[in-house]
Design a protein that fits this description.
The chain is 25% helix and 12% strand. It is of the alpha/beta class. Among the domains are: 107 residues, no CATH class; 117 residues, no CATH class. The protein has a 12-stranded parallel sheet, with no helix packed on it. The chain has a two-stranded antiparallel sheet with strand order 2-3. Strand 13, helix 6 and strand 14 form a beta-alpha-beta unit. The longest helix has 43 residues.
Amino acid sequence: MKSFFEKTVGLIFLLVLLWFLFLFLGWVWDNKGVISLFVAGFLFLFVVVPFLRSTKARMVADTDETFAVAARQVLSGSTSVVGSSRELPTAINNSNLSQELDSLEPVSERFNETIWLKKIWDWADEFRIPEYIIPRDRDNLLAITQLDISFSYDQITYHGGDTDGDLYGEWERYIPSEICYLDNLTELSISCELGSLETIPESLGQLRKLTKLDLQLFGFQNFPEWVSKLDNLVELKLYFTKASLVPQWLSSLDKLQRLDLGHNKISELPECLGKLTNLTELSVNSNNLTTLPESMAQLTNLKTLKLEDNDFKCLPEAIKHLTNLRSLNVSSNQLIEIPIWITNLTELREVNFSSNSITIFPDYIGTMDTLERISVAGNEISQLPLSITNLENLMSFNVYNNLLNEIPVSIISYLDTVQNVSGLSHQNLKKNTY
């Protein structure tokens, strides 16, 4: 089988011979141009053109045969031709493969698909990812809408250790960038233990159909910027990182309804957070916050706010504008009082002030008749107001570990009707320190 180079050289050589032949004929016929032109035309039509046609036909046939064989090897799982995959798609697309490959049209696209599917399957096999998470057949894999990738130490691949299970040597974890081709995904969850994953491919930003993203990224210094491209997100969780700043691009995800930034190192929330007006749930628990931005007053659709385990010394006033709020958790902070403006939250159903330094259970709490659950456990409260008996919808009340000395009989009678009461002992009310 001659190469393209050899055929090209042969054609050039033939054209040179024809040129000399034309010169010779012109000399023979005493420079009679008409006769020379006639002879040249005759030779071109009946010699050169047939030669070019036959050469092209042989080249196409050779290309078909070569790349058809290569494609079949890849499709059958052979890895011997994967190294030349950069050249194969174009060649296959320009050739006519045999009938048994006709079902794979368009050829170039499906050939590429075969390569990235194989990479995903190899990755899943390497880290023992179950088939119910990563199906090992094409149609089921392309159809998945939810993907949960959890990395733990028992899945880590060790290199350099002995065969008896000694855990010496290097280990590595990764996520293949080809996951971005699973474009039917609407929910993606990635969880990694500390140090078990160093990077996440930016190509995941191409998963534009994602509506739910859950990233538990132990050890990561910052929030991954590719998340900003996922403009259809409704729910986003970015937690267990070392990030201290919330990026400005977060405000571009204006379809968000649920946002969880818990268990990070955040010391301040940006003003742009107020642009996420569709938020109904916001969790920034277990950070280093001392205040909230004034723009949070714009989050009037917010129903759940979790601020526990921060460094608040007083309840941020931005909260008083959240008139649709139903659940507020500010436990494990440094609060010393419950402000009167909390009564503005007329839709509030659940409030948790436990593990603070509150000394007074205010009388105006009794006017909030929508309350169903109250926890003030772990404070320094010594008395309960009589107005508490006005809370007709109260179902759960926790005053565990306070300094209650006396509780009026009317309050005791009322609490007997509450479904779940913690921290009271009728036998030892004068020493209620538990």
